[in-house]
Amino acid sequence: MLEVLGNPRFRAIWYVVNVAELTRWMELLVTSVLVYSLTDSALMLGLVLGFENLPRPIFSPFTGIIADRFDRKKIWVSSMVIKLGAGAALFLLLFSGNIAPWHVFAAMLAQGISRALEDPARRTAIFDIVGERRVVNALSIDSMSGTMGRMLGPFAGGFLIEHVGYFWPHYPGYTWAYVAVVTMHVAALLMAIRVIIPRVEREWRVEPIWNSLGDVVRAAFSHRQLMGMLFITIMINGLAFPARQFVPAIGRDHLNVGETLVGVLAAAESIGQLVTAVILASVGSIRYHGRIFAIGAFSVMITSTIFVWSPWYAATFAILVLSGIGLSCFGTMQGAITMRSSPPEMRGRMVGLQSLCIGIGTPPGVLLMGWLGDVIGIQTSVTLNALVCIAISVPALFLTPLVTRPSQPPPVTQPQSGPA
Question: Is the whole model's pTM more than 0.70, yes or no?
Answer without folding.
Answer: yes
